[in-house]
Amino acid sequence: MKILFAKAHILCHDINSFTKGPNHVDVIIGASTGDIVWFEAYSQKYVRVNKNNIISNSAISEIRWLPRSDNLFLASHMDGTLVVYDKERDDATFIPEVQFNGAALTLQHGSENGLAPLHVNKSVNSKNQKANPVASWKISNHRITAFAFSPDSRHLAVVSEDGSLRIINYLKEQLTDLYPSYYGAFQCVCFSPDGKYVLTGGQDDLVSIWSLAERRIVARCPGHHSWVTAVAFDPWRCDARNYRFGSVGEDRRLLLWDFNVGMLRRPKAASIRNRASISSYAPIGRNRTESSNPTGRLRSTSSFTIDDMDEEDLIDHPVESRTVTAELPPVMSKVVDEHPLSWVGFEEECIITACVEGHVRMWRRPQDGLSP
Prior knowledge:
By secondary structure, the protein is mostly beta strands. Helix content is 1%, strand content 40%. The longest helix has 4 residues. It is globular.
């Protein structure tokens, strides 16, 4: 079976791991024209979504199935909009439902023309759910470059060309944190397997580690010589305290990094300002007071968890100087391709990289007891 796109080229796709089976594979595909296609490989059935740009005429930059969903998926459009679609529903002409969900405050970055932190064009709680879209959120006037779901399926990390990392409780349609890059756009984002950390990479040639519970940057990771295009955790090398992740970039390099909770200590000058500890997912109450520092961050007097974020207001975080942020060096750096790299992934027995020319390479892991 062949599906031809006469005036479009494919930009992204995703396979539904929840419904995947020996005789069934659901694939969702996003195109430069804004067209979306659901395709089932074995039955060779397909359905067009957003046909004739009835919902949005903006190109699709990223597309993902919602965790543990048979038919819902999230697409980011290059106009800065996130849209939830249902492959089983028909499309209908979409008129935004004027609604704002976010604090009325002046943001230091990431907001233009008075745009609210999270502009809800259509809520998941809307009474009008007979047709697509299921939900629509405008978060920026710039292109969304990537997004990732947290392992507990409650939070969404979104990065964009305006140089912002946004943490969204997408079940409540609330933006909780807005972080800036050191400079330039973010290109990629992912969660750690336990959901405690977020990785980003971008045009500042850095990989950055953010703590979801402590609501701050905990380390920057220099080592690339050009833009970072993909980051990923290695689930076979992560445990309760130790983490392994990899990154690739336009410098054609694969970098591997190791860190643990004890390594992620802020320099003395910074630790005096903001102290907090990392805890498990078990709900633990905390007493909090407003910090006296000008960033408006919160200082905790006890351990806290990601669950506590649900009750927090939006924090617009400032750019933190590199002189007060811990730096983490890579444990390995190697040029592995002739072309700029665009993707990295980990399997139990190998590491996989892909380049912009479409070449996929599999790197066998060393035997246990040898170097990484």
